[in-house]
Amino acid sequence: MKIKRYPFLIFMLFICTLLFGCWSKKELRDLALIIAVGIDKKDGKYMSTFQVVNPGNVAGATQRGGGSTGLPVALYTSTGDTLVEASRKASKQISRIPYYSHTNLVVIGEELAKEGIQQIFDAVERNPQFRPTANIVIARKQTAKQLLSVLTPIDKIPANQMIKTLELTEMMWGENVDTRLREVIESFSLAGKEVIMSSFYVDGNRKHSDDQNNVRTMEPTARLRAAELAIFKKGKLIGWIGKEEARGVLWILDKIKQTAVTVDWKEEKEAVSYKVVRAKTKVTAQLRNGKPIIFVAVKTEGDIGETFVAIDFTDPKQIVALEKVMQQEIKAEIEKAAHVAQKKKSDIFGFGEVVHRAYPKEWKEMKKTWDDKYFPKLDVQVKVESFIRRTGLRTRSYIQ
Amino acid sequence: MWLRLRNQNKKQVYQYDKVAQEGIYGTIERDLHANIEKVRNITGNSADIVIRRFLLGKEENLSSALCFVSGMVDENMVQQLLIEASVQLSFPSTCCDQLDYIEKKIATANTTRRVKQWNEVFSLLMSGESILFIHGMQEAISIAVKGGEYRAITEPSTQLSIRGPREGFTESLGTNVAMVRRRIQHPHVRVEAITVGEVTHTNVRMMYMKEIADDNIVEEVRSRLQRICMDGVLESGYIEQLIEDETFTTFPTIYHTERPDSVAANLLEGRVAIFVEGTPFVLIAPAVFIQFFQAVEDYYARFDIATALRFLRILVFFISLVAPSLYIAATTFHQEMIPTSLVIAIAAQRESVPFPAFVEAVIMEVTFEILREAGVRLPRTVGQAVSIVGALVIGQAAVEAGFVSSVMVIVVSITAIASFATPSFAIAVSARLIRFLLMVLAALFGFYGILIGLIWMTIHLCSLRSFGVPYMTPLAPLIPTNLRDTFVRFPLWALTDRPHGITEETNIVRQGDEQRPEHNQETRREGDEN
Amino acid sequence: MERACISARQLFMLAILFEHGSAMVIPLGVDAKQDVWLAILCGMVLGGGLLFVYYRLFTYYPRLPLTSYSQRIVGSFFGRVLGIIYVLYFLYIAARVLRDFGELLLTFAYPETPLFILNAVMMLTVMYAVYKGIEVIARASQLFFFSLYWILILGFVLIIIAGAVDLHRLQPILEEGWGPIFHVVFTQTLYVPFGEMIVFTMIFPYLQKQEKVMKAGFLALLLSGINLAMIMGMNVAVLGADMVSRSTFPLLNTIQEIRVANFLERLDVLFMIALIVGGFFKVVVFFYAGVIGAADLFQIKEYQRLVYPLGISVLFLSIAIASNFAEHIKEGLQIVTIYMHIPLQIVIPVLLLLIAMLRQGKRGRKPQGAREQRTP
């Protein structure tokens, strides 16, 4: 009995090895690494655009057979009634298995966004390859395909360029928001929250954007540029919000990390720039006479970045006065943003969820009519506290 | 056919020594010639058996013969002995027992012993003693003049240390035992002699500390040593393989070392050392897994450094175990787990490689093993040439030819260096074997395969025992006080207990209270103020 | 029963691994929405009550497993029938957990691999462990206990660093009152994983120091309850209640949210380790209990003889119990709960305890059989 057990186990293992079909095995050479997916609608069918990395041509890969003569990415387009169908059909053109695990960007054409995007995320969510952390953007005034067919000079892979730009501008300026796939899906299931997404468009001459010559010039003729925020309602694009209003949205969403606010000083217009280094927003809800009131409390800290007028920053009184002006400016931005959203009847700030958390029972009543009845007339009270902590390397300016 | 052969073999019983013993039964005769003939006969007149005939005594001139094996005795001592016996020795012819007188006279210079049985005569002769036959006596005198050439004490070649004693064991049993005894000068150091090998009659010494070593373990080691019954034991490796608990394992369950300080330290922890004649490698049992990641230097260096190094070694062991299989799993199953920029870089390199990742990895690993094996056995000067060829062929040409990717070369090199950095060769070799198994599993099932392999390995490790002591002690079963000397090494003053489960449980504490140097200093500082 | 003994510490760690097992990765009690952690904690408290019942039974017969003392309590015939039912129950649950495990692995990492192969590889490992005996399993549990904890702590820290946690998602607490929570407790969390401690009635007798069972068992229950509540709470805080309830394995989605410094991301392997180690121990404990129980019932001295036949049966059973994942889950939530968990985890042990108490009361304080040897 004792001797028999080892051969038996080994035999079992051996059978497993024989059955070796190498299921689920995918060699790197057989994969098409799809770095970005664009989704459009054409003649009632979905049109998927795949930006596929060509690893041999990405800078940094100095392996034999590489060289930097070719393009770092290739573009494939495929249509189908569903996204899965389109993806499978793509195999007619691509010699490798489409692989979505490194898809970090999903681009949606404006037309499709207006029609509604709720349907397209089921396939994405169901597929274990797709990442919930992928970024999602809207192609402004064009199709996703047009946006994806632009070559970029510094980050060789255009999708990476877009993602990095988005992340950077959210952090430095705060008019765009880096929306993740999961946030979009989550917003569909929450009654009191709508989603916003950043948009990109092709700046310049679009004609030869996909030509290598586009990146041979110092100033590429076609460039990718982040644009306004898209406001959604029930999965449909209903409008755009840009400039200061966009930043106001980010203030409320507590997504501002750094930015620069320029304010007037006395008679001079747009005279002093305030660099925000830290910002924190708290949103709370209260019920008064059965009507919800939202309190937005913003707290910012920062430095003076630039001034066109002579202000004596050694004087704390001046600083306090300046802080007041800042607070007014930020408050105005926020109120404008809230106003725009209320006009569009889309609760992009998630005020409904705030009420839901604070008053779960009352929320059940408000839920159904929140968008039409409560949200547009919502009383949003904004309170901003700004602190100027430092003034940089100089106290007074040389401007007299 | 095979079965029948096996059955036939089974019928034949091992009886070499019985046959040999039968030929030489009986006792020594009075006649010197007959005795000499007998020696000649039995040894087949071998060339290295020297029989020197001489006349014993200054005046008495008893015809006698001294037998010894040339090379195994100290020639000077034999010379002196002969001069003494033939020129200086004189004894009363009328005394009650001449033999006794002679023996005692000679005993002033050497240890002597009287022998009567032939088999005794031969075993002593072969072990390097010389036998003195005297005409007319029914007994012979065996004189210990063991000698001959041994390698001098040198630095151990396998377990080098930067700080610590420079001496290593030699092939001489007596020297080895003495080296350890010099380190532990206590009467509780017990040395037991056992002869192993029916033909070789190899001397084996079992050393342990009475009161510290667990009696059951000592008894177990003793009985296992006595059970050995085979022609020859030429190295401690023979004994290791014959007394270990589990044969079907890649993990060593007996520790071996070349360093006397390591043996001393292990004796103080209650382990048993087994010295074997003719090899510098001393066995230590019972051994636990974690022991193979410890070096003597850990205790000589300060605790923080020792701890850091131990963590490094465990990490290194893991790298040498799983690095190639992780590469296979990540590149063929789980591309999503590699960061995007890295996956693009790897993909770019693998673009021109004609093999699947698994085949690539196996080729590279096998090439490396070949190079290593080639380098080990070659003379040192040629060995360098091998490493140059290896570096050029693998490192450059293969990559440039597009046979393998440079990532693979990095992985193989990391694995190789990691396996060199494992302090014990025995455990590094077992990692080498398991590595290939894990590579196959990784090629079949990716990370799942690796994890399953590691679970198998862990269960196997947990099921091992070394002389009754669970192999994973003190991790599993968990002994918190002994954890102080596993992955981490606490300061020496905190290592209060000897290893539980190995040491005699009644005598577990190994140092006094308050060994912490700060305690003593504070009192001294107070003294200064006064 | 085999000749072996394990320490209280080993029992504690084995129980922790067992409790975490698959409960950690499946959407446990998600019908309670954001209050899922409360449901788990309530399940734990009630599970403590059940554990106390098992413990009392054990104190009456500290040297016997469930399959033996059932014969002492209700007589040889009925006891034997009960014993067989329990053995089948343990083996069936082992097959179910194996199936769970295979399905999870299949869905998220090996879509093209046949379920049978994945399960077979796992079952071989389980059989190997069970073959080696409870001592080896207990020792291995100590090693894996620490590795699992390190991974959990690492995952926890990374998720917090990644800033994915939004505690607002756990609000509002008790949105629908206690009703739904207790509904979840009595349909799910009480039985899986806490009531499943019934399987440890087969392992308690191995304990070296019998008086420590209580402490080890309850500490394990408490700690794993808190841990599971934290894990599910974390899932909700990261993903939101809706996504957790729609997910096949929320923990995987939570781990996928980790994105630290654009480098530490895609740490699915952490999830995989947790899944495999946890699943492994759960199957091992159930399978071991089944094998030992069968050996005990049929008086087989070398229980190892049963490992292969029963192991292969469990393997095939795990394939045969359901034709698709939905069916498998549905069975688990409804049929198994009503027809297996409730009678076998609650009704029968309580009845056994009552009968045992009455019997002992009649005969005097000293429990009979307590001093007796293990089965010959």
Automatic annotation (TrEMBL), chain A:
InterPro entries: GerAC_N (IPR057336), Spore_GerAC-like (IPR008844), Spore_GerAC-like_C (IPR046953), Spore_GerAC_C_sf (IPR038501). Its main location: membrane. GO terms for biological process: spore germination. It comes from the Bacteria. It is found in: Membrane. One of its GO terms (cellular component) is membrane. It holds the Pfam family Spore_GerAC_N. Keywords: Germination, Lipoprotein, Membrane, Palmitate, Signal. Residues 25-197 form the Spore germination protein N-terminal domain. It is a lipid-anchor. Residues 229-392 form the Spore germination GerAC-like C-terminal domain. NCBIfam families: spore_ger_x_C. Belongs to the GerABKC lipoprotein family. This is Spore gernimation protein KC. It comes from Anoxybacillus flavithermus.
Automatic annotation (TrEMBL), chain B:
Belongs to the GerABKA family. InterPro entries: Spore_Ger (IPR004995), UPF0353/GerABKA_families (IPR050768). The lineage of its organism: Bacteria, Bacillati, Bacillota, Bacilli, Bacillales. The chain crosses the membrane at residues 272-293, 305-329, 405-429, 436-457. It comes from Anoxybacillus flavithermus. The keyword Heme does not apply. Keywords: Membrane, Transmembrane, Transmembrane helix. GO terms for biological process: spore germination. Residues 504-530 are annotated as: Disordered. This is Spore germination protein. GO terms for cellular component: membrane. It holds the Pfam family GerA. Residues 511-530 have a biased composition (Basic and acidic residues).
TrEMBL record, chain C:
It is a multi-pass membrane protein. It is found in: Membrane. It comes from the Bacteria. InterPro entries: Spore_GerAB (IPR004761). One of its GO terms (biological process) is spore germination. Signal peptide: none annotated. Its main location: membrane. The keyword Transcription does not apply. The chain crosses the membrane at residues 12-30, 36-57, 77-95, 115-131, 143-165, 185-207, 219-241, 269-294, 306-326, 338-358. Keywords: Germination, Membrane, Transmembrane, Transmembrane helix, Transport. Pfam families: Spore_permease. Belongs to the amino acid-polyamine-organocation (APC) superfamily. Spore germination protein (SGP) (TC 2.A.3.9) family. PANTHER family: SPORE GERMINATION PROTEIN A2. This is Spore gernimation protein KB. It comes from Anoxybacillus flavithermus.
